[in-house]
Amino acid sequence: MKLLIHKEKRELVDGREFIVSKAKTYFVTELSKDFQTMYGTIRKAEFAKPDGSVIKTDMDKEFVILSASFIDFFKNLRKLPQTVPLKDIGLIIAETGLNKDSIIVDGGIGSGALTGALAHIAKHVTSYEIREDCIKMAESNLKLLGITNVTIKNKSLYEGIDEKDVDVITIDVPEPWHVIKHASTALKIGGFLVNYSPNTTQVQEFVNELQNHDNLIHVKTIEIIERLWKVHGRIVHPKGTDIGHSGFITFVRKIKN
Fold first, then answer.
1. How many alpha carbons fall within 13 Å on the CB side of residue 184?
2. Is the whole model's pTM more than 0.70, yes or no?
3. Are residues 41 and 139 located together in one domain of the fold?
4. Which residues contact 161 (CB under 8 A, 6 or more apart)?
5. Are strands 62-67 and 124-128 parallel, antiparallel or unpaired?
6. What CA–CA distance (Å, rounded) separates 49 from 29?
7. Beta carbons within 10 angstroms of residue 252's beta carbon
8. Residues 93, 203: one domain?
9. 23 lies in which domain range?
10. Same domain, 55 and 78
11. 146 & 240 share domain
12. Alpha-carbon distance 117 to 83, whole Å?
């Protein structure tokens, strides 16, 4: 897979600066065919050039070619509307300290985005999902990412967690409070339960249920708002395309058996 990157081009006309071609990035999955862009066609032979090469379309527009990395594949996955965004995935990874030796259970695989991101770092991820359409999409996305250290179970976390001594459990399910009792036995001491919910009522009921489990502590509940900025020359101001509320992330830790 390749990335084609066209940099923004500006020109001064009568003392005023105008954009003559906008920045554009293309993710190319079929390298055996010519590729059509908004700035013309790139011949398939160009894809054989080394990373960083400048190639041109038949309209004489320049692109830089790069080999796609994991994050490029990730950003081009087929995703469901409720997919956990990168800003939240990054926090989950940072706050739990998961690493190459981590064993993870993920509840509600969705399109497989969070599962794939976790499995890219961790030793193994077991995902629970009751919807077969989600499983099918997730399997396709994980294949695209080249992820092989994931086991998918067509089962509800509400019924229990088979795994033991788990480092991290992540859940994105409608009624997360039903998972707490199972997570409390599946986690190793010091392990994390991470709940992702879009609504305050879900968070409230989840945290309230934690009070019934003295081997778990509520570390914190957090929401991340991402604000994009435009920076060009002397122009520096927020863009109007902020990613607002996506979900509340509640971190829970097991402190004893």
1. 18
2. yes
3. no
4. 105, 128, 169, 179, 182, 183, 185, 186
5. unpaired
6. 16
7. 25
8. yes
9. 2-68
10. no
11. yes
12. 12
